[in-house]
Amino acid sequence: MAEEKRFDAEVHYKGDSVEWITFIHGFGGSARTWKKQIEFFSKHYNLLVLEMHKNKINEELSLDKICVLINNTLAHYKIKKAHFIGFSFSSLICLRFAVLYPEKINSLIMGGGIIKFNIRTRSLLFLAITFKRIINYMILYRFFAYIIMPKKNHKRSRAIFVNEAKKLGYEEFCKWVDIVPQTKKSLTWLDELDENVQVLYVSGNEDHLFLKDTLRHSKKISNSQVEIIENCGHVCSIEQYDKFNNIVFRYLKSVVL
User: Fold this and answer.
1) What region holds the AB hydrolase-1 domain (predicted)?
2) Integer Cα distance of 111 and 116 in angstroms
3) Is 121 helix (H, G, I), strand (E, B) or coil?
């Protein structure tokens, strides 16, 4: 029997009795975008760091299909349950995974989290879908990266994500852009989220596109809380990784399993 399709992943193993953390990178990202988290959390936890763009899945993807592939990856590494840390768009993947596989979740932590698309982000999404087959995808990606992370202190984060996106390729970019509209009505299926799932959002106070909606809509999620890092943009896990790591570490220690 052929092995079920799954994502590539890095594994950092500490021991049988140690809890697992699964890292799910953002759109266009890679395991490299979690470099500072891997260095920190590998001292305390087993880590499964997904590489969702590496060996590309040669079929159309949907939000639920991505969750199936994540579940297959957990099964491949015999991981029964884990904390999940997502970033930006992957926060919606984490939430959907928690709806479909609540038994696999210890907690959810989202850096630069997204819950709902507002009129500005829907406009950006419309531009991406409309021009994805007309304009070089890296021009679009650089444009979106600058809109999301416009300040001088966001420069390093912006550069890392642009450099990682160069490895995507045109077809992979289009495939993932087509998934994003499936999440626009995320609050509808969020009603199915198990009220026992514990959720933490960590955002920079300069996350001008997503923070307001995260603060507003996170109140509709039971057992959720938001931590805000001052003088920090969207990619708080890179820009102020020490503060991000310490906030997440304290939270993980407080989670009741």
Assistant:
1) 21-112
2) 15
3) helix
Closest to 198 in 3D by CA, of 112, 248, 114, 256: 256
Choose among 155, 210, 157, 203: nearest CA to 186: 210
Coil, strand, or helix at residue 113?
coil
Query: What is the per-residue pLDDT across 54-74, written as a single tens digit (0 to 9) for each?
Result: 877 777 889 999 999 999 999
User: What's the chain's average pLDDT?
Assistant: 90
* Cβ 112 vs Cβ 207: under 8 Å: yes
| pTM: predicted TM-score of the whole model, two decimal places | 0.93
CA distance linking residue 71 with residue 91, whole number of Å: 16
CA-to-CA separations, 131 to 126, 138, 139, 193, in angstroms, rounded:
8, 12, 10, 34
Helix (H, G, I), strand (E, B) or coil at 197: coil
Highest CATH level, class, for 8-254 = alpha beta
